Model the fold of this input.
Amino acid sequence: MYHASIIKAAIKHKVNVVTTSYVSDAMRELDASAREAGIVVLNEVGVDPGVDHLYAIKKIDEVHDKGGKHNSAHFLSANKEITISKTDLMGVAKPYFVLEGYDFVAYPNRDSVPFREYYGIPEAETVIRGSLRYAGNPAFVKALIGLGWLDTEPKDWLKTGLSWAQVFQKAIEANDASESTLSSRVNEICHFPTKAESSRILSGLHWIGLFSSNPATIRGNNLLDTPCAQLEKQLSHQLRERDLVIL
Done:
């Protein structure tokens, strides 16, 4: 959200900028000023966005070279623009086969519409840039959204001294911070389709530490940034662990 401000400061001080983030309209409007200042502003050079662009263009060029055409979540479907709200996005994830031994689902990723032009495929009636996740991940993220853990609004009550369970209690307006009360409230909010799904999601919330009596690490005075310190510990690579990116 601060990228445009950073680029403005870079233009003022004539400093180059490199980010892995998507180019927003506010950033695009600074293109002429950046050129005039003689600086380079290079965006979308991560894995996603970044490497995915290179592979997409590579495959599109290969099809075009052979005389083929591409007919491949603001996105295009049969030449109609489709928009899916961020609150509903995880609910549209569908199984997507990539390789034997991997259980993936896919869902639309951000605004795909401009990429018909960016990728040079005017013949394409359907254009969807999507994200792959392990099966079960979108349902878990959907639960986090429903429980308020992706809320960026400041919370006056979110202060140092609260335990994780107490933060969770206040976030979902539970009667108390006991495990049973929190679990019941989670089920009430999320409306899981099965007991097995409820158990799986609750297990994940336990693993993060949201039921813990340990002191919560408060960040940014909001419920999106606050769990980050916990996730940094839980998700950090251990000895001999490796990351894997599949595009």
